[in-house]
Amino acid sequence: MEFGFTAEDEAFRAECRAWLGAHAGDAADRRSWERTLGKAGWIGLGWASGGWGNRTASLTQQVVWAEEYARSGAPPRSGHIGENLLAPTLIAHGTEEQKARFLPPIAAGDELWCQGYSEPGAGSDLAGVRTSAVRDPGGACYRVTGQKIWTSLAHEADWCFVLARTEAGSRRHHGLSFLLVPMDQPGRIEVRPIRQLTGASDFNEVFFDGARARVEHVVGGEGSGWRVAMSLLGFERGVSTLAQQIGFAAELGRVVRAAVDSGAVRDPLVRERLVRQWAELRVMRWNALRTLGGSAAQAGAPSVAKLLWGGWHQRLGELAMQVRGAVAGVGPVDWSPSAPYELDAMQQVFLFSRADTIYGGSDQIQRTIIAERVLGLPREPEGAS
Asked: Is the entire prediction scored with pTM above 0.85?
């Protein structure tokens, strides 16, 4: 039994593993798979009691489910943004009416969400939001105008939670509101996929041209957007960190096998790097278990974790290319600029991990958070490089 997990947790692990083993192959498409998960009660394990979620589970059992899901080879989740980000935010800041309207469809896997935070001129600098939301003269809704970028799953989502400026002339974190915006508004919302180095299009640009958001769908009240948005970011790097490490371990295993197959493992420097990657991954796991649940003393834990895994994953991608030699640089023979192309798993890791130290808050931003909010160092002057 691993540190932090009880006998009850391990019994729950066996239940999770058995169900996933029996059903993971049933997913015809990602949306129907969400409904399958919802029907079986696997969505909303971490929600507070109140009838909004499905079965109840302790924090460690939520970790167990996330880990077993990562191990199972089940499809990537389309509903994780609604389940793991919006739902706990609504539980913390939403009205009873908002909870009753939005939580049950998320728990059932019926409504999918995306996150409207980053903008072309305000990525890691979230307070630089320019998207505006102006209240209609009748007062029943807001009109949202602006652009969001790097919006994961916007092409699949039914709704988007949008951080927008509702107070004209306001600056930085003042005058922002957190709005729930339906995506099915032809002519008012346009989604444009962003093609990545890997050939895939996981992210999107989203353009709002007077899109409607109802007044009763402002979470936390008008002008409280910054407080709500920061609360949501606290949920973003919780239980999922430990599940992410299961995927990292599988990738590391592939790199080790490639090093053996290519003979690169005979190089003592390569062996040292492989062992270092393994040891650092174990350290990340123990650190995540140690900080599970969070506390005031662990205020900087999400930023520390992001710094650790972002750099680790990039180094793994580089090592994956090194151990394979020249063949690692060979792409698909039928590649063309206008068509999607397929890369193997380790090429995907190498290319995608280049973004790990940028998205979700760049390394520079994470270090600033740790310095100012945890260590209490003087704030960096605005505009300083």
From this structure: no
Per-residue model confidence (pLDDT) at position 297: 41
Q: Are 225 and 86 in contact (CB under 8 A)?
A: no
84: number of Cβ within 10 Å: 23
Helix or strand (DSSP H, E) at 311: helix 301-324
Q: Note the pLDDT of residue 92.
A: 87
Flag residues of the chain having pLDDT under 50: 1, 295-297, 385
CA dist list (Å): 312 to 278, 281, 286, 353, 372? 10, 8, 15, 9, 24
Among residues 156, 167, 222, 236, the one annotated as catalytic is 236
Tokens of 123: 């990525």
Burial of 81 (0-12, 13-18, 19+ CB in 10 A): buried
User: Which is nearest to 116 in space by CA: 182, 173, 167?
Assistant: 182
Nearest to 91 by CA among 82, 99, 83, 100: 99
Residue showing tokens 């915006």? 181
Residue with tokens 């790199």: 255
Is residue 311 within 8 Å of residue 363, measured between CB atoms? yes
Q: What pLDDT score does 232 carry?
A: 80
> Are the beta carbons of 114 and 157 closer than 8 angstroms?
yes
List CB contacts of 16: < 8 A, sequence separation 6 or more. Answer: 64, 65, 68, 69
- DSSP bridge pairs for 134: 143
Residue 236 annotated in active site: yes
- What distance in Å separates the CA atoms of residue 277 and residue 267, rounded to the nearest whole number? 16
C-beta separation of 67 from 242 below 8 A: yes
Which one-letter DSSP state was computed for residue 378? P
Of 120, 86, 77, 123, the residue nearest 360 (C-alpha): 123
| C-alpha to C-alpha distance for 245 and 285, rounded to whole angstroms | 7
Q: How far is CA 169 from CA 162, 174, 249, 274, 354, in A?
A: 19, 10, 48, 53, 37
Radius of gyration of the chain (CA): 22
